[in-house]
Each structure stands twice: as structure tokens, then as C-alpha cells.
Amino acid sequence: MGVIDSYADYLPVTENTPKLSLGEGGTPLVRSSFIGPQLGIPDLYFKLEGCNPTGSFKDRGMVLAVAKAIENGYGKILCASTGNTSAAAAAYAASAGIESVVLVPRGDVSQGKLSQAIAYGAKVIVIDGRFDTALSIAREMVDTFNMCLVNSVNPYRLEGQKTASFEIVDEIGLSPDELFIPVGNAGNITAYWKGFKEYDEKKQKGVPRMMGFEAAGAAPIVLGRTVESPDTIASAIRIGNPASWVSAEQARDESNGLIDTVTDEQIIESWKKLARSEGIFCEPASAASLAGLLKLANNGTDFSGHRVVCVITGNGLKDPSFAAENAESKPLNVAANIDSVAAALGI
């Protein structure tokens, strides 16, 4: 059905807004089978945003940004990206019959994400610089040329992304007590908080504490300063100067939540736990939400009796090389007979 149709009453749409959709939204909210009970949190859920059409939460906001771009007469969209934004922008531009241009930082985008943008027909420009430089160039481009910027600085992006909070409340019946979420460019934590507040105003379902987590090597909000050379294995949150910095701090403060850091080691361990304990295969940055929960729980924070949601922002196939590099076991090559297979299994 798509987020524009599903939540039109909560979105800035008009009768002239195209009803664009690739079937985004409606992603699963999965109750934890093992990690939650181990932590004493029976109501731990994972919001699987990797089930969106291009494999990440970006589709929710991009469908609205592209629809409004068309409504406002644009024939071309532009974004800077570490990968997921470019995939979503290119896909929705293709479905709408308009052009897309994406600027990506050299060496900071996984092949899985880059291949999506290429497949959808985007004009991909690789720059010698970080994401923040790419975004700065993109902003200059739209000021000079007739194209629409669809990064999270575009307000329609956050309007679309907030619909995930509506789905969580609709499924649980109430707001969670805490929502754990990765923080990179900080648009998603901003969008979720906006959505929870709007839904509570209309339906009195409560609001959560917003628990955001940056990678330790790319933590400008926690450090209180721009990080010139952000460094983390989690490329989707490898951001040194978040576009939604101020609004993310507002979400933290208004919700009595926090924005903290997790190390790459904690991200990798949580990524493994999600796959092997819950059957959830996510890209590295997505595991920052669970890493944050585990960090706090291991340090003595008691979440027993709480409704807790961890947002899993992207599918593991976004970065397949990461899975191969971090596997604890490798495929075994054996002769094509039952004895060889049994010997490899130790039976």
C-alpha cells in the first residue's frame, strides 16, 4: 500500500501529490526469541527496516521526497550518500520516470549499495572526499542548477521516515518505553521522535525515551565537535558532521533519552548475535541499536518490565563482504559423496 496512502492524514500531501509507492513501510516488528529473555526483557522487539523495497529505512522518506519533487516540478533529484540514500533515491526516481544523480565518497560505500544505484540507472559520481564534503557539494549544486536535493535535510524525508514510529505503536498498542536506534546523519532519530510526539498528541499512546548510538570513531554529537575523519566499520553511520545534529539533541533531551557511543567490536558482536540468536541478518550499522542496549544492560541498567524496540535499519545484503570477513566458520569443500560430507560434519 505504501506510506503515502497508509498515513496520508499525518503527511504533508495534497491532491496533487503523486501516489508514488514501491510498497515501502509495513515492515515486521519481531519479538526477540532469545536475546530479550537472556536480558530479562520479554518485550524486546526488532523493527526490521531492511524489509523495505531497497533494503533500508531510507525508502520511507525517499518516496515522499521524490513525490513532492515531482509535485513541485522537478525533473531531476540529487543526493550525497554513503550508500542507502543513493539506492533509495535511484529506485524511486526510476519508478517516477525522472533522473537521479548521486555523489558518493570514494572508498566509503559498500559494493552492494553502489550496485543498487547503478542498477536503477542513477548517474553516480565518486568524489575524493568524505560524506560531509559530498553533501556540501550537493547543496551547492542544487543552489546553482534546477534539481531537488533529497538528503535528510529535505524535510519531506523526515516526514516519511516518521511513519515507522506509527507502525510500532499500532502493532504494540502503546509506545515502547525505550527505542534504540543507530545515529549517523541523525535524521532517523529526529524523524522517529517527531512521529511519536504526533501520534501521542492524536492517540495518547505515550512516547519512548530515544536511545541513540553513534559509532565510537564517528561520534560528533557525543564529542560535541565535528569529526574530520570519521572511522568505523559501520559505513552507514560513518558521518562526521550530522545534518540533523541539533534536532537529534532535541529528541534526546525532550524524551529524557541519550545519545552514546558503541565500539566497532560491540557492533560486530551484536551483528553476530542478531544473526545467530534471532535469525536477523543486518548491515553493520544496524547492529548499533542492539549494541547500545547490550552496553547499557551489561553496565547495570535494568530494563525488566519495559517495552523495548531496537530499530534494524538495513538488510545484511547491503554489505555482503562484511559477512564473509567476519564469519567464524567458512564453507567446507569436499568430494561429491556422502562419506566426505559426513566426515566434514564429524558424524
Give an overview of the whole structure.
Helix content is 42%, strand content 15%. The protein has 347 residues and is α/β, with parallel strands linked by helices. It is built from 15 helices and ten strands. The chain starts with a helix and ends with a helix.
At a glance:
With 347 residues, the chain is an alpha/beta fold. Helices cover 42% and strands 15% of the residues. Helix 4 (84-96) runs parallel beside helix 5 (111-119) and helix 8 (163-172) packs across helix 9.
Give the helix/strand layout.
Layout: H1 3-6, E1 29-31, H2 35-39, E2 43-48, H3 58-71, E3 76-80, H4 84-96, E4 99-105, H5 111-119, E5 123-127, H6 131-144, E6 148-149, H7 155-161, H8 163-172, E7 178-182, H9 187-203, E8 209-215, H10 220-223, H11 245-254, E9 258-262, H12 264-278, H13 288-298, E10 307-312, H14 320-325, H15 338-345
Parallel strand pairs: 2-10, 3-4, 3-6, 4-5, 7-8, 7-10, 8-9
Antiparallel strand pairs: 1-2
